[in-house]
Design a protein that fits this description.
six-stranded mixed beta sheet; Cytochrome Bc1 Complex, Chain D, domain 2; about 25% helix; single chain; 2 domains; alpha/beta; Immunoglobulin-like; binds copper (II) ion
Length: about 475
């Protein structure tokens, strides 16, 4: 009995003395303040440099709220409400025990009052009531950083979901006294969901939709404030052999992130932004709305690594996709790339193929061709282009009333036989996906194209096997 009590007492002592990383609240509260400095604030994806101080100090933070029109997606404008001019808000980096003097400046051109709730604050509203600020005013409040960790901050002015939904969130890192392990690169990514009056992709300046926010049905789920913010020339970068740390937050207002790097295992994850209890060898980490996580990994292979919300509809159709490009030498032992492309014929398929070749039905009239083409479509094309030929917005182009198809029959034959890997515009919408080259007979391709041309309001023309044969890109199967 005595034994049990004493081990419980030891456990309690460990819990309240603070964790392996960071000191206890009481220690941080008692930590004397030495000196004063202005905080270094950065826009995503950049992170302020690590703190090397061995003492607590007074940190002055000026964060300016701006209401600004900007790009949400190609051709889609949005009036963002921001902490510092960008979404997400400025990255703030302090040390546990620091005393923060926080100035929230609401720019005179803004139309709305705003405030800030920092999850790193112990106090009512996380600073919200103390910082409620009218346009053209500035509020000041102070707090002592008692708990280390990676924390979200956000506006908490009613209607809160609207202020947050317009982009009012960011991250504040309270470094433990020991600091974080040294890495070669640090980046800042924050997911958020957006609700627009028009559907995803609808052009022009889009107002916030309260109805969709209430239904929690976002039109966009993005990293760092817009679709494609962190791809191409703006992708994160690293070299093979380097270690990378991502500070990842989810501003919401509603949607949780299943954060994942395609082709990259997280060596270390600090779930919930808790720096004291890292997990290792993690594939996907859940980041709740209003939460954060730190992920670390070493680049073992060159290439483009895609960072996504693994709720994949959001990644591939609503924007939650970023890139990290790694350069450096390949190690074929780590990853070989494609080594072979061999013919695969399970037992019995040889006969089936031959039979199909001999007995494949041949159309004698255009009507027969349309009928046979419907089957070819169902078996090969429907999964992407959909039963009604409408395709899937932002993913698969429509075949119905398609200017791309109706404009050029030869091009259609070349597309089906050769595939497509380039950007294309169909009926005014841009598509970036990949269409495979179809290994189908001249007869099948003539049938399916004739079916498509005679369905869903298309031009009604016929494609013959002879035309396919003379314009096909890939050799016949
Ligand atoms: Cu606000």
């Amino acid at each position: 009995m005595i034994r049990t009590l004493s081990s419980g007492a030891v456990l309690a002592a460990v819990l309240f003395a603070g964790s392996a990383y960071g000191a206890s609240r009481d220690e941080n509260l008692a930590d004397p303040i030495v000196g004063v400095e202005d905080a270094v604030l950065t826009d995503a994806p950049n992170v302020p440099p690590p703190i090397h101080r061995d003492h607590a100090t007074k940190v002055i933070i000026h964060l300016e709220v701006r209401e600004l029109e900007g790009r949400l997606a190609d051709g889609v404008r949005y009036t963002f409400w921001t902490f510092g001019g960008h979404v997400p808000g400025k990255f703030i980096r302090i040390r546990e025990g620091d005393e923060v003097e926080f100035h929230l400046d609401n720019h005179p051109n803004n139309k709305n009052p705003h405030n800030i709730d920092l999850h790193a604050v112990n106090g009512p509203g996380g600073g919200a009531a103390a910082s409620l600020t009218a346009p053209g005013h500035s509020s000041v409040f102070s707090f002592k950083a008692l708990n280390p960790g990676l924390f979200v901050y956000h506006c908490a002015t009613a209607p809160v979901a609207m202020h947050v939904g317009n982009g009012m969130y960011g991250l504040i890192l309270v470094e433990p006294k020991q600091g974080l392990p040294k890495v070669d690169r640090e980046y800042y990514l924050m997911q958020g969901d957006f609700y627009t009056h028009g559907a995803n992709g609808e052009q022009g300046l889009q107002p916030f939709s309260m109805a969709k926010a209430l239904d929690e049905k976002p039109d966009y789920v993005v990293f760092n404030g817009s679709v494609g913010s962190t791809v191409g020339d703006n992708a994160l970068s690293a070299k093979v052999g380097e270690t990378v740390r991502l500070f990842v937050g989810d501003g919401g207002p509603n949607v949780t992130s299943s954060f994942h790097a395609i082709g990259q295992i997280f060596d270390t994850v600090y779930p919930e932004g808790d720096l004291s209890a890292p997990a290792h060898n993690v594939q996907t980490t859940a980041i709740p709305a209003g939460g954060a996580a730190v992920t670390e990994f070493k680049m073992s292979a060159p290439g483009t690594f895609i960072l996504v919300d693994h709720s994949l509809e959001r990644a591939f159709n609503r924007g939650a996709l970023a890139q990290l490009k790694a350069t450096g030498p390949e190690d074929k032992l780590v990853y070989s790339g494609k080594q072979f492309d061999l013919v695969y014929q399970p037992e019995g398929t040889g006969i089936r193929v031959v039979t199909q070749g001999v007995q494949a039905p041949v159309a004698h009239t255009k009507d027969e061709r349309v009928k046979l083409g419907a089957d070819v479509f169902t078996n090969n094309c429907q999964a992407c282009h959909q039963e009604n030929g409408e395709g899937v917005p932002n993913a698969f182009p429509p075949l119905a009333k398609s200017d791309y198809l109706n404009g050029d029959k030869i091009r259609a034959i070349k597309t089906v036989t050769g595939g497509l890997e380039t950007k294309l515009v169909v009926n005014g919408h841009e598509f970036n996906g990949v269409m495979p080259a179809w290994s189908l007979s001249d007869e099948d391709i003539a049938d399916v194209l004739t079916y498509v041309y005679n369905t869903w309001g298309n031009s009604g023309l016929e494609v013959t096997p002879e035309e396919v044969n003379s314009h096909r890109i890939q050799a016949k199967p």
